[in-house]
Amino acid sequence: MSTAAIRGFAAIANDHLEAPLDIYRLLVKHPAATFIMRASGQSMSPAICSGDLLLVDKSLTARDGDIIIASVNGELMVKRLFKREGLLTLLPENREYSPIDVTAGFDFQIWGVVTYIIRDTCTPS
Q1: Could you tell me which CATH number the domain at 31-118 has?
Q2: Domain residue ranges in the chain
Q3: Is residue 43 annotated as a catalytic residue, yes or no?
Q4: Which of 9, 82, 83, 88 could form a disulfide with 102 if both were Cys (CB 3.0 to 4.6 A apart)?
């Protein structure tokens, strides 16, 4: 890439500068009810990769299609919530994993709704 292109980008970026960016204020709507956790495993890939940071809001009511953090029979998991005809299903994004139908016998609790996924897109050197 030419240095002219790099200087050109800086000039464009400077034209659009506003106040300093406060990521916390931008992403966290309910500070007392928000936590961050690191994803592990591949069940939500490619939407969520192992190592991604998940911003989770405990104050939100989980809706159909939301990605949630849930405790199922003592196991903490990240899944997409589907509500159909009074039934709850927890769906992985990765088709190599099976959906979980939440039944009456399950110890099930929603911990929160994933509001943002933060991923490091840089390749380690």
Answers
A1: 2.10.109.10
A2: 31-118
A3: yes
A4: 88
